[in-house]
Amino acid sequence: MTTRILHLTQVTKVPLLDRAGERLGRVEDVLVRISDGGYAPMVGITARVSGRDVFLPAELIAAVEPGRMRLAREKFDMRRFERRPGEVLLRKDVLGRRLINLTGAHLVRANEIVLAQIVDTWCVVGIDTSLGALLHRLMPRSRRQPPNRPFLDWTSVRPFLSHVPGAGDGLPATELTRLHPAQIADLVEAASHEEGQEIIDAVRHDSELEADVFEEMDVEHQLEFLEERSDADTASLIGRMAPDDAADLIMELDQDRRRPILDLLPTKHQRKVRTLLGYNPSTAGGLMGLDFLCLDARTSVGAAVAAIRDSELSPEALETIFTHDADGRLDGAIRVVPLLRHDNATLLADVVEHSPPHLHADREVSDIAIVMSDFNLTVAPVVDHDHRILGVVTVDDLLETLIPEEWKWRADVSRED
Questions:
Q1: CATH superfamily to which 5-159 belongs
Q2: What is this structure's pTM?
Q3: Predicted confidence (pLDDT) per residue in 387-397, tens digit
């Protein structure tokens, strides 16, 4: 059986006929119910009948055809349209607007909306983002040809809903969790303020995800979406960010907000951030993170593996572990994979790379890049003048500093199709 497919512009602003085929009025819009992860079923239409805007439920519609709709019976309730929660008018709320394409994480514009009859129900099954769809929509109806273009499946896109009355919480947070925080940040940066705020509001349901997204956003957008937040809310967010990212963001805040927000951070986090604020942001001290694992060189491999297993640090912070001597000075380094190849009883002192490459806190970015490149490091320890480890510079933090700003706006990442 061939699935019947129509485009929204074929069935809106068209005659509404009664059962006998006589014209009653004009179809204005199609109302659908947004459902999580599925096609959006049509729940009715709005129409202009005898000078009034009325709502007609889907069960009253006998035929949906190109250029017209026909009702199933002569009499119907001339009630005015009242939107219920979760309902969206396709022409008013979606057509011509941007949506999130979850496949590839970028913004697309609905230049046309594709409807299909599934069993006995008309549903939204896709959107056409092509320029051809836009031109087709702008043509006089008499010159339009039946469209036959590929379209994006509706289940792969999510509309912005903050402009829709009664839409509830807007974007569902569960959908955005399918994306990497960096992809979500790209979407925020490519969106309008209202769209970006809707994305931020969605991820606020997951406080850790929200912090990860803010870490990935550029400074301009970080400040934009913190401007209207209270100091307490801002401190709550910054308190969940990595200390190095938190320190960078605090330095970008208006001066009169810095100290109050810093004072509101949890004590342990505040101490780390204050430490990092003492370094020039463009040096190893300013770039370093304070999360690392440094064990006594006399620790056994088995005990080191247990320490890694029990650590609450991120996996990235545990890719390389360090050792110190009896005086607390940096003594060695070893990556986790080579570590696992040794017998549990072996001491770390017998397997680590002694006198590993390291950086001093005042080293510039160019020096950091040369050292990490020359020694193929993904993590470089930063030491003080007594050779005690202060923190680590990771390759991703280095790359973020080195990448030119214009490279971060690649068209295939976050820009509109």
A1: PRC-barrel domain (2.30.30.240)
A2: 0.84
A3: 999 999 999 88
